[in-house]
Amino acid sequence: MDYVIGVDIGTQSTKALLVDQHGAIVAQHASSYQPDTPKPLWAEQWPAVWLKAVVECIAACVRKAKEAGVAAKSIKAVCVSSLYGGSGIPVDSDMRPLYPCLIWMDRRATDQVEWVRKNIDLERLYALTGNGVDSYYGYTKMLWLRDHEPEIWAHTRYFLPPNAYVIYMLSGEVAVDHSSAGNIGGIYDIAKRDWSDEALDMLAIPATMMPERLVESSDVVGGLLSQWTEQLGLEAGTAIVAGGVDAAVATFAAGVTRAGQHVAMIGTSMCWGYINQTVDARHGLISMPHVFNGHCDIYVFGGAITAGASVTWYREQFCHAETEAARAMPNGDPHRLLEESASQIPAGSDGVMFLPYLMGERSPVWDAKASGAFVGLSLYHTRAHLYRAVLEGVSFALKHNIEAGRKGAQSLDDKLIVVGGAAHSDLWMQIIADITGYPVYTIEQDVEAAMGAALLAGVGVGLVSREEAQNGWVTLIERAEPNAQRMALYEQRFGVYTDLYPALKPVMHRLQTS
Question: Which residues form the Carbohydrate kinase FGGY C-terminal domain (predicted)?
């Protein structure tokens, strides 16, 4: 039997799993960390944190597999997917990191966004790249580095996405997969599947800073360097496969490979996306080549910056009693207690609504100065009301993106697949079904992007045919059916949700500048 390893570098943890050529999990491991947030709306990470976590996770999987009788020579490939790395990691000519990676969550490039809007032909940029203008995108973060860190800019040889940097460290080869390149935004030609010299010239970003080698997500970039064999327990030359952006890789893990299928990945952030062959940036969503059949298929997605992060924030700031109580319980999870209380609250949280804009907001709002809000509070409301309102608020943000996505989708299937940490919550899955109107399905195996990376590894070394890969390795299970009565209530409340941001926007912006 042959085996592969899938790795997913996330915002708050890295996960790896070792599977056989049929997708059966033999071993898995996770390593946690936190991004650095040195200033409000800043979020960055030194790549050494990611590399250390990847090495720990791979080594642990190999060690556990060896105990189960798996020989190193039968592990044929490692594939690395990663969070969207925003600017990427600026490295010098010796491939040494010069500055932290400004990750997707970082919103510091507001002045650069305004510069682009005033000085660049936006319609041409939209047409070339299929993407818009916002501080979410990597190219605006690159412009921030150019403007604020000229010494770093002067010595930058390449900007490398997180997975590309880790792959370079493992294999000595420099390559960027098309999904990661496309997700940078304004410098990638979505039609030509290549860097856009025209866009780079417009933005005054040297084309030489973009790695020349662009690869498919299932391509073998190189072989494992011998210096890693002892630490990882793998043989030198083990194939290292390109991988891609985690949202697309998780979507692939769920078996999404054809137009119309759509998936919500709800972890720290929320990404909802579907497969299409065309894109229109004016609909306010993000696009990049898909990690499977990326030469023709485009992964179009949008999402909230703080989804699970909103839930974590609320728990940490306001739910100390539940946290303490959970420590005495077998599973130790305060969310179980919070969910029990929130499930007793009626749909609509008795009039409380939450805007989950705790780090500005991405699509379709695209406002770095947007801020979070509870609206409709009274003395009657409890922590349980507010907890349910947080779950509902993120679910409304999901529906907001789905409604934007309908404008450009060829079709959308009549079921919604949800992956990520939110899938552990029965209450949240029901809320999502009731708000979106879709039956909700989740992955039975609970492995998401790491499994997608493993499947790409299998395709890359020929252990899995492209026909087999189309259906994935996972099993979907139905979790929630929409309830007609709650759907009607939520439809009315969704109108309130979409009215709140325009109404509050002037106040949000005044608070940001006062």
Answer: 264-459
Computed over its alpha carbons, how large is the radius of gyration of the chain?
A: 22
Helix (H) or strand (E) holding 113: helix 110-119
The rounded distance, in Å, linking the Cα atoms of 420 and 304 is 14
Domains belonging to the chain, first-starting first, are 3-244 (3.30.420.40), 302-445+477-513 (3.30.420.40)
Backbone phi, then psi, for 458, in 5-degree steps?
Answer: -60, -40
Contacts of residue 309, Cβ cutoff 8 Å, sequence gap at least 6: 268, 269, 358, 359
User: What's the CA gap between 498 and 404, in Å, rounded?
Assistant: 12
| Matching residue, tokens 């949000």 | 508
Please tell me whether residue 144 adopts helix, strand or coil conformation.
Answer: helix
Most confident of 1-10, 253-262, 313-322: 1-10
Q: What percent of the chain has pLDDT over 70?
A: 99
Q: How much of the chain is helix, strand and coil, in % rounded to 5?
A: 45, 20, 35
Q: Residue 167 is which amino acid? A: I
What is the model's pTM?
A: 0.91
In angstroms, the CA 313 to CA 298 distance is 33
What are the phi and psi torsion angles at 99 (to 5°)? -160, 155
In whole angstroms, what is the distance from residue 432 CA to residue 330 CA?
A: 28
29: helix, coil or strand?
Answer: strand
Instruction: Find residue 102's DSSP bridge partners.
Output: 44
Query: Is the separation of the CB atoms in 141 and 209 below 8 Å?
Result: no
Q: Can you tell me the distance from the alpha carbon of 106 to that of 428, in angstroms, rounded to the nearest whole number?
A: 27
Asked whether the beta carbons of 155 and 98 are under 8 A apart, the reply is yes
The token duo for 159 is 């900007």
- Give CA–CA dist 451/457, Å, rounded: 10
115-145 as b/e, with b when 16 or more CB fall inside 10 Å?
A: bbeeeeebeebbebbbbbbbbbbbbbbbbbb
236 with 229: CB under 8 angstroms?
A: yes
8 Å CB contact between 138 and 83:
no
| CA–centroid distance for 334 within its chain | 25
The answer, yes or no, to whether residue 150 has pLDDT greater than 60, is yes
